[in-house]
Design goal:
The complex is a heterotetramer. By secondary structure, chain C is mainly alpha-helical. Chain C contains 20 helices and two strands. Chain D has one domain: Helix Hairpins, CATH 1.10.287.3510. Chain D is elongated, with a radius of gyration of 17 Å. Classes of the chains: A mainly alpha, B mainly alpha, C mainly alpha, D mainly alpha.
């Protein structure tokens, strides 16, 4: 419980110095509105994960405390990369986050799947962190400094005629961060890791890990490579569209609910990736809004999985049949989450998608928006299949599901977030202008 | 508003039958038959008295035309079409016929329908029919006329399919309504053209605009008149759209008498007469009307020669007589056409009710082959049937002679070939009418009918009145040269503006000669048939049972028109419907959508396989992806 | 203010009903829908035909993006709100008492009504889109949980098909939003003023909007979801779908397609009219040979709507008056006919026309009421169908003749299959049902008698409705000139 | 004095060798070495650049990189030990259960 208290304190501090804008550690890290809001989001995410983990872990009787420590390390890494000014800190933060994720992925020692997940994550992760380092080196080669603002100034006043190495460096960094975020050609690790590692870790990785990486990605682009060159923009759009289609298509046939959530996470990355080519004034706002809705929806979706794990080993979708009869509140929450992930109006997911499409169309990538729309149509198949299973059909055995207070609290909060943001998006928009 | 009494009468006129319909319709089942009869006939009696009052007022010159506007119905173009009624000499004549004959038929059907389960329903429908017919005749704009037009079509559907437990009657009713609808479509298109060119649908505005525009035979006028004539063909069963009338005999006989002899089928003629201004501006259409009229008259007459069902013979005879009326209109002799409408209403209603009496007496036996020798058994029916037959054949003194002769006279001046065909038609009419008379009444008794159902007075009275009218009706329009043609004088204000280019400039001598010639020919036919009717009858009976010679087979089977319609129109549509549903809808359009869904699912399956699980392959593909990005960057960058 | 109450009242009550499944939800829901109807009547009463938008309320909803909660109502919108408010009590009352989970059912129905009224009164592009899609979810749940047959596959196909159209519309709306002057805004007037779109861009946008509306209406090639959904959905769901939701598509085209993209509409008008008329003829030919009662009614509804679509895209004053009036007429007729189909099916538990018959013998009063509904559907003069059909065909006539003749064909075919339906169910000798079923009991009469009265009344005296719609149509036509 | 390009090409070559090593070898320990090789190639480049820009912040950054790679390897080896305990082999091809 002490941990949660600590986290709440940290959350309060970050909100407290909302207004102040200055940098610490000789300009390595800065606390502008962007970094503070994302840090707060990451802290909240970790808090939820810590809140839910005791009940989950004592069933697996794993050393709950070590895993909590790992999560906090990951959180530290996350906060670093969300508020970095110096590229060096970006690399260190990414590494801190990744290494603690490798450990978390393998946290269930006896389970072979978890081992395999951590192996895969480790090997691919370290290969692509070297890409990141090489990219930073190349960018340093051309601009002569690690400081993001200096690079940004150098790049913008250099205009078009900048040494080609710079673009190669930028591309290397995109590939590395693309991997971290599980974008299209580099997404292969994500389904296996998310499926293999224990459900609690998957929740943590897919929410905290992904949003931290996106925060870093966008911060880098907003600060350093602001006038995103058009063909780099198209490249990221292609990556985004590819991610969406692969994620959505593969999720269609998944019998296992967990693996379906993994692929849906990959698909959601595809949508978020559209923010990068359109980076500029509104992109931070869009990312933050979508980040919150994605986290809220994932928390609900995964908490159902966690609750089911209490009673049955199998993670197949058929477990959900007839849920509405046993537990109408949970079924309603999952329905809202699924509607939000699919992007149906009254929920926050819709406005997030709309906001994202407006941004992308504004930056001139309308074809990408059309593809995004088509892929979100494909996603209806499996999101609604869950809703259909819950509301039609009779559950085989009457498992009397009792929801511990921690779960009902977190589900309730996420539900409020999804509906409130859906009906009154005005609260958040314009926050990070 | 100072509504004159005439206007109040006019306004009330159509709504009396409607009230009758409402009363019988809603509470009919609770009343006894007599009360239903009283309500039914009473409402028609009242409207008959009102129309007689209006007629007298008109005769006494208190008003030329009376008009009353009840309320605004539909705003069209600039003006707005009102739910307004108008009565002028033309509609008054039709009014008298409708309410008069209608009243008699109502009385008759009290007796005829005695004991039928749907007694109340029958009278309700009859009253509704009279309401729509009055609406049609009294309308002062095309739209209200169209409302009445479709209304009578609806009532004919209800009444033909009155005994709805019989499947074939239902089919006949549906066929009648759909065929009427085809005609109504033409009428609707004609109305659109009128609004499009003249900007309004009120008769007087349209006719004045048309008259001022002038310019005979321009394309729009011809188109309008042709479309209106197409609607009239649908309703008055002319050549292309006549096959529904013989099938309409499925309804009870009073219905056939009222609707398919006296009133509804004459709606087409009323429409052409009402729009005489338009038609006279389009001589081409008039010649079409003449041609269609003559063709229908001849065709129907030939078919009637070989029919064995008593009502079918009369049905084809009606189609043929309608052909005569349209021929008269075709020559521009609107008054002659209307005169024949009136007389035809009398004697054809008489014949139908007579036939009804026969059927009633012989327990619903309609086949002529097992009738015969009824002259002695049903003397009264035989006598009125004889009057009707003489009237329709055009024997002097009887009403048919005057009206048919006037038509022949007008057609003779206009188009001698047409006159010749119509003359042959007249002979054929006489032949098949006397054949019917002989088969039913003369000769020895065939069939096994013994105790005849007696007729009560409510059936006898209308028959007697109709017989008198068929006899005396002709004097309303004595031939022109006698100067006593009252009808012509009465209707002249309505048709005054039409330049009656065919004023009978024939000398009296030629006219008398023609008249004598036709009478002699008809008398010859009667004598020929009467003298050897036994021999002719036996030959025809065994021919009917056995194999008909080729030249008789064609008309006997109604020239296979019904079969042609079926094969050329009805079956292809049904086959198309089956094809469209099974192939186009489920296979192609629906199939396409489902296939797209299927494709997405199979793509999902393949995408799933992409995740092979082997780390080596992952790394390989990822690095390949990275180099692919570089390649793409280079390609895009250049 | 009234419009907002019209939206919020059913929404709140609906949500409350969904979570409480008490027994007395049915009466409460009925009371709310009747209150809605009175409110709508008051709004109609206080509506001044000449002045443009009325009851306007404009609150900032998402200021950062220039999106406002902007609702208001003009002639056309008001008529459709009246239709919704009128039909809702009948639909609710016609629900059998023994349906499972009544709370959720009535809740979803009321949320549905709120979304529909929202669509008809939204003046802000984004708000329109949100209500447009919000209307999809309740109907999807209704058809899924209370339908018969393989509801899962059919409703999913229906949902995805309609969503596909509306998502394309979303992309088009976003594109338009970005064309508006800098502080982008979604409000109707600003979108109408967008004029810097050249022909082929307008063409693309036209097709994006047209697809969404064509799927919803449905117009010919995009109709494959309709028959199956109408058949598997519960009758009340079908009533909602064919009675009111279909009008969303037409209203959407009138409000958001024709004035916003005049050049696109003008270039693609012939195609749209041709598709609609082809669809009308196609559907009425198919309806001839249908044995399943509800499927036949589905195709007949599609035929009627094809003609409405043709009248809509003929862009003539008469055509548009016809569209507005026929929307009302068609709404009432289909709701009545589907209710009749439901009664017949519940009594004989079969929908196969060949097995039915003799209902006129069993219950003559019921057959008379059904006959009036059939007359309305067949566009018989003195019924509301005729007035709509007359204007539509006349508008089509002014547009071009062959289309009008094809339209006329559907009127003839319409008479054929509707009478066939009437004869097969009502006439003929009674099928061997053990007991003589009473078809029109007291509760059925409460629905059928008012509907038939409305059919005849609006047929005889349509003037007040036409006056309401006329100024709005004029304004629409002015906007459509480019 | 050796121009900067040579260092650049050397480090790129080293980087590619490391990448090829990761792809081709199946043994986990060799894999770790190749990853280290890729990281160090970047270090080499950083040191060269720091000399070229005569600004020592890059060299300090190299220290951090070494620190991080050390941490990384230790975690990697720990995972290797865990895997070895369950399946006595260091071949990565054995681990294929998570697929599709």
């Amino acid at each position: 419980m002490a941990l949660i208290a600590g986290l709440v304190l940290a959350f309060g501090i970050t909100l407290a110095d909302w207004g102040i804008r200055e940098s610490y550690f000789h300009n390595m890290i800065s606390s502008d509105s962007y970094s503070l809001s994302f840090s707060a989001l990451l802290i909240a995410c970790t808090g939820v994960s810590l809140l839910l983990s005791p009940m989950y872990y004592n069933r697996l009787n794993l050393p709950y405390m070590d895993i909590a420590a790992m999560k906090l390390f990951a959180l530290a890494g996350g906060i670093c990369i969300v508020s970095f000014v110096n590229l060096g800190l970006l690399f260190i933060g990414i590494e801190l986050l990744s290494i603690s994720s490798f450990v978390l992925a393998g946290s269930d020692k006896r389970n072979l799947l978890s081992n395999e997940a951590s192996l895969k994550y480790f090997i691919t992760g370290s290969v692509f962190s070297s890409f990141l380092l090489f990219g930073i080196a190349l960018v340093y080669a051309v601009t002569g400094s690690f400081d993001v603002t200096v690079i940004g100034a150098f790049y913008s006043q250099a205009g078009g005629n900048i040494n080609n190495l710079f673009y190669v460096g930028m591309l290397m960094i995109i590939i590395a961060l693309g991997f971290k975020v599980a974008a299209a050609p580099f997404h292969f690790w994500a389904p296996d890791v998310y499926d293999g590692s224990p459900a609690m870790v998957t929740l943590f990785l897919s929410t905290m890990g992904k949003i931290a990486a996106f925060g870093a990605f966008l911060r880098l682009f907003n600060q350093a490579f602001l006038p995103v060159p058009y063909h780099i923009g198209i490249l990221t759009c292609i990556m985004a569209v590819a991610t969406m289609f692969i994620g959505n298509l593969s999720a269609l046939w998944q019998d296992s609910y967990k693996r379906m959530l993994a692929y849906s996470a990959v698909a959601q990355t595809g949508y978020l990736l559209l923010v990068i080519p359109a980076s500029g004034s509104m992109s931070a706002d869009v990312l933050f809004y979508n980040g919150i809705t994605y986290i809220a929806a994932s928390v609900i979706a995964f908490s159902v999985l966690l609750l089911l794990n209490q009673y049955t080993e199998s993670e197949s979708r058929s477990q959900l049949i007839g849920l509405a009869k046993q537990n109408p509140f949970l079924a309603f929450a999952v329905t809202v989450a699924m509607l939000s992930l699919a992007g149906i109006p009254p929920t926050a997911g819709f406005f997030g998608k709309y906001y994202l499409f407006t941004l992308a169309a504004g930056a001139g990538y309308t074809p990408a928006v059309v593809f995004a729309v088509i892929s979100s149509l494909i996603s209806i198949f499996f999101y609604f299949d869950i809703i259909i299973k819950m509301y039609t059909g009779e559950a085989q055995e009457q498992l009397k599901m009792v929801i511990p207070p921690a779960y009902s609290f977190s589900i309730f909060v996420s539900l409020i977030v999804l509906i409130l943001l859906g009906v009154f998006p005005g609260i958040l928009t314009g926050l990070l202008q | 508003m100072n509504l004159t009494f005439a206007q109040i009468a006019l306004a009330a006129l159509p709504f009396l039958p409607l009230a009758g319909f409402a009363v019988n319709g809603l509470w009919g089942r609770r009343f006894k038959e007599t009360t239903i009869g009283i309500v039914g006939c009473g409402s028609i009696l009242l409207s008959f008295l009102l129309s007689v009052f209006l007629f007298m007022a008109n005769l006494s010159g208190s008003f030329a035309t009376v008009q009353v506007r009840l309320f605004d119905w539909i705003p069209v173009a600039n003006g707005s079409i009102g739910f307004s009624l108008m009565a002028d000499p033309l509609s008054l004549i039709m009014l008298l016929v409708i309410t008069g004959v209608g009243l008699l038929i109502h009385l008759y059907s009290v007796g005829y329908m005695h004991g039928d389960a749907g007694f109340a329903r029958f009278f309700a429908y009859l009253n509704l029919f009279i309401f729509f017919m009055l609406l049609l005749v009294l309308a002062d704009n095309f739209l209200l006329l169209f409302a009445g037009w479709e209304g009578v079509g609806l009532c004919s559907f209800l009444l033909i399919g009155f005994w709805f437990t019989n499947e074939s009657y239902n089919a006949a009713a549906k066929k009648a309504f759909v065929m009427n609808r085809i005609g109504d479509l033409g009428f609707l298109l004609g109305m659109f053209l009128i609004v499009f060119t003249y900007g309004s649908l009120n008769f007087d505005q349209v006719f004045t605009a048309a008259a001022t525009a002038g310019g005979a035979n321009n394309a729009t006028i011809i188109a309008i008149t042709l479309l209106l004539f197409w609607g009239a063909c649908g309703k008055s069963a002319q050549i292309p759209l006549y096959t529904w009338l013989p099938d309409a005999m499925a309804g009870p006989t009073p219905v056939s008498a009222l609707i398919h002899a006296a009133t509804m089928v004459t709606a087409g003629i009323y429409l052409v007469a009402r729009c005489h201004v338009l038609f006279s501006l389009a001589p081409f259409t008039l010649s079409v009307v003449l041609a269609v009229g003559v063709a229908t008259a001849l065709l129907a007459a030939t078919i009637a020669l070989f029919q064995t069902d008593i009502k079918k013979v009369l049905a084809y005879s009606t189609v043929s007589q309608l052909g005569y009326m349209f021929a008269a209109l075709g020559t521009g002799a609107y008054v002659a056409g209307l005169f024949h409408v009136v007389t035809h209403a009398f004697f054809k209603a008489l014949l139908f009710l007579g036939a009804g009496a026969v059927i009633h007496a012989l327990h619903h036996e309609q086949d002529l082959r097992n009738m015969g020798g009824l002259r002695t058994e049903l003397p009264f029916v035989y006598r009125i049937f004889l009057v009707g037959t003489l009237a329709i054949s055009g024997i002097p003194v009887f009403s048919g002679f005057f009206s048919k002769d006037e038509i022949l006279m007008n057609v003779f001046q206009h188009h001698t070939v047409a006159w010749g065909l119509l003359f042959i038609g007249a002979l054929l009419t006489t032949f098949y009418m006397f054949r019917l008379l002989a088969l039913a009444f003369w000769g020895e008794k065939r069939g096994h009918h013994a105790n005849y159902v007696p007729m009560n007075t409510t059936m006898k009275l209308p028959l007697a009145v109709l017989a008198f009218l068929s006899f005396a009706g002709g004097f309303a329009g004595l031939p022109e040269f006698t100067g006593l043609n009252w009808l012509h004088h009465y209707l002249s204000p309505v048709f005054s503006d039409v330049t009656l280019h065919n004023e009978p400039h024939l000398s009296i001598g030629v006219e008398l000669g023609l008249m004598a010639f036709t009478v002699l020919a008809i008398a010859g036919v009667i004598w020929f048939y009467a003298s050897r009717f036994k021999h002719l009858q036996t030959r025809e009976l065994n021919q009917l049972n056995g194999e008909l010679p080729w030249y008789k087979k064609l008309p006997a089977n109604k020239y296979y028109v019904d079969e042609w319609y079926n094969r050329l129109l009805v079956q292809p549509i049904n086959r198309l419907s089956d094809f469209l549903y099974r192939v186009a809808d489920t296979l192609i359009i629906d199939g396409l959508v489902n296939r797209i869904g299927g494709m997405v699912l199979s793509a999902g399956n393949r995408a799933r396989k992409l995740q092979s699980g082997d780390i080596g392959i992952y790394l390989y593909v990822m690095l390949a992806g990275a180099s692919g990005l570089f390649l793409l960057y280079v390609l895009l960058g250049s | 203010m009234i419009v907002t109450i019209l939206i919020v009242l059913p929404l709140l009550f609906g949500l409350a009903a969904i979570f409480s499944n008490g027994r007395s939800v049915r009466n409460a829901a009925l009371a709310v829908s009747l209150a809605e109807f009175c409110l709508a009547l008051y709004a109609a009463y206080s509506f001044v035909p000449q002045a443009g938008m009325q009851q306007v309320l404009n609150l900032p909803w998402i200021p950062a993006l220039g999106i406002h909660y902007h609702v208001g109502v003009d002639g056309i919108g008001l008529l459709l709100i009246l239709l919704t408010a009128l039909l809702m009590p009948f639909i609710l009352y016609s629900t059998p008492d023994d349906i499972p989970k009544p709370g959720a059912y009535y809740g979803l129905m009321l949320v549905m009504q709120a979304a529909l009224i929202g669509v008809f009164s939204a003046l802000d592009g984004f708000l329109f889109y949100v209500f447009w899609e919000m209307a999809l979810i309740p109907i999807w749940f209704l058809c899924l949980l209370w339908g018969r047959g393989n509801t899962v596959a059919v409703t999913l196909k229906f949902f995805i098909y309609t969503l596909f159209g509306s998502l394309l519309m979303l992309v088009a709306l976003i594109y338009l939003y970005l064309q508006t002057p800098q502080p982008h805004s979604f409000s109707l007037e600003v979108l109408y003023a967008v004029s810097n779109l050249d022909a082929n861009v307008q063409g693309w946008l036209f097709w994006a909007f047209f697809l969404a509306f064509a799927i919803k209406i449905p117009i010919f090639p995009f109709h494959s979801w309709q028959p199956d959904t109408y058949v598997t959905a519960p009758t009340q769901g079908t009533m909602l779908l064919s009675g009111i939701m279909l009008k969303m598509g037409i209203y959407g085209a009138m409000r958001w397609l024709i004035p916003v993209l005049p050049m696109g509409v003008h270039n693609w008008m012939p195609v749209a009219v041709a598709l609609s008329v082809a669809g009308a003829v196609y559907a009425s030919v198919i309806a001839l040979q249908q044995n399943d009662l509800k499927r036949m009614l589905a195709y007949s509804s599609m035929a009627h709507v094809g003609i409405i679509g043709a009248g809509l895209f003929s862009l003539t004053a008469n055509g548009l008056t016809g569209v507005v009036f026929q929307m009302l007429a068609h709404g009432i007729n289909t709701v009545a006919l589907f209710y009749v189909a439901d009664i017949i099916e519940r009594r004989n538990n079969t929908r196969n026309l060949n097995l039915l018959g003799g209902i006129a013998l069993a219950d003559p009063r019921f057959s008379v009421l059904v006959f009036v509904c059939v007359l309305g559907a067949v566009a018989f003069p003195l019924t509301n169908g005729f007035i709509g059909e007359f204007y539509l065909l006349y508008g089509l006539f002014e547009y071009n003749l062959p289309m009008c003749i094809a339209g006329g064909l559907t009127v003839i075919l319409g008479a054929a299959y509707m009478l066939q339906f009437f004869q097969k169910t009502m006439f003929g000798n009674a099928i061997s049902t053990p007991h003589k079923p009473v078809y029109a009991g007291k509760s059925e009469l409460y629905v059928l008698v008012p509907l038939t009265a409305i059919i005849l009344l609006t047929g005889i005296y349509p003037k007040p409705l036409l006056n309401l719609a006329a100024p709005a149509i004029e304004q629409l036509l002015q906007l459509a000139q480019f | 004095m050796i121009p900067l390009e040579h260092y650049l090409y050397l480090s790129i070559i080293l980087f590619c060798i490391g990448a090829m090593g990761v792809l081709l070898r199946r043994n986990m320990i060799i894999l770790f070495m190749c990853i280290e090789l890729m990281l160090n190639s970047a270090n080499l480049l950083l040191v060269a650049l720091s000399k070229f820009h005569s600004d020592n912040s890059a060299q300090i950054f190299v220290f951090f990189v070494m620190l991080v790679s050390a941490a990384e390897v230790s975690v990697g080896l720990a995972i290797l030990v865990m895997l070895y305990r369950n399946k006595p082999s260091t071949q990565i091809d054995l681990w294929k259960k998570l697929k599709e």
